[in-house]
Design a protein that fits this description.
Layout lengths: L1 E9 L6 E9 L4 E5 L6 H8 L7 E6 L2 E2 L5 H11 E4 L11 H5 L1 H5 L7 H13 L15 H13 L5 E5 L7 H18 L2 E6 L10 E3 L1
Parallel strand pairs: 3-8, 3-9, 6-7, 7-8
Antiparallel strand pairs: 1-2, 1-4, 4-5
This protein binds adenosine-5'-diphosphate and magnesium ion.
Adenosine-5'-diphosphate binds next to helix 1.
Length: 212
């Protein structure tokens, strides 16, 4: 599903260097990557998602060599193949929960907001226990509810890869575990692999494989 080979990356404006000789994730598996703050976890996810481009090396996701695509190509690829759950949820306040879940369809010409997509949004919301809150805006939702909306949005396009960036970071310990289980459950139902970065060691037993 994901394969990285000899990846080197640096930002223009900082001394930080990311070096990844090899990393791989198989279909339908759950991999956690742990590391302290500032170690490059978000950078890694952004490379895999094609938001950033490596200086050298190969990144392959789902049979496509992402690191070879143009900027527009990587955007299209990301929209159709990857679900991203961001650390800060990244919901849009001017949109309702339902509109946030369906947001990928607004910004991606290649995706059609058809009846199936709407039904998928609805059943994800039911599975996540927020179906009675779909008309609310994020400001009227608790953090845990916002996180559920973000999970629904990451899965609604049926991606084969879900990336999660410390997405339980702002939650209390009970909610953390519940939300992570929910993400796994939904990913599994959809046949998606999950790659999650975290600095939360408590959550690690829930993954099949952990990398430091
Ligand atoms: P983590 O997610 O593990 O906390 P990051 O990937 O966000 O780490 O950051 C890794 C390093 O890269 C940090 O030293 C950070 O300051 C630096 N960094 C992150 N984003 C940028 C950027 N856009 N420009 C310059 N430096 C950055
Ligand atoms: Mg980070």
């Amino acid at each position: 599903m994901v394969e990285l080979e000899n990846i080197k990356f640096s930002y223009r404006a900082s001394e930080f260097r990311l070096n990844i000789p090899h990393l791989s994730l198989e279909n339908r598996k759950r991999l956690a990557i742990v590391g302290p703050s500032g170690s490059g976890k978000t950078t890694l996810l952004n490379l895999i998602a094609g938001i950033l481009k490596p200086e050298s090396g190969r990144i392959e996701v789902s049979g496509t060599e992402v690191s070879k695509l143009s900027d527009a190509g990587r955007r299209r690829f990301r929209a159709s193949q990857i679900g991203f759950v961001f650390q800060d949820f990244a919901l849009l306040d001017y949109l309702s929960a339902r509109q946030n879940i369906l947001y990928p369809y607004r910004i991606t010409p290649a995706l059609t907001l058809d009846k199936e997509a709407q039904e998928r949004a609805k059943s994800l919301a039911i599975a996540c226990g927020i179906d009675d809150k779909l008309d609310r805006h994020p400001t009227a939702l608790s953090q845990g509810e916002q996180q559920r909306v973000a999970i629904c949005r990451a899965l609604v396009t049926q991606p084969k890869l879900v990336l999660s960036d410390e997405s339980t970071g702002n939650l209390d310990p009970d909610s953390k575990v519940r939300i992570l289980d929910l993400l796994f459950e939904q990913a599994e139902a959809a046949g998606a692999a999950v790659l999650a970065v975290t600095h939360d060691h408590e959550l690690l037993p829930r993954f099949e494989r952990v990398l430091d």
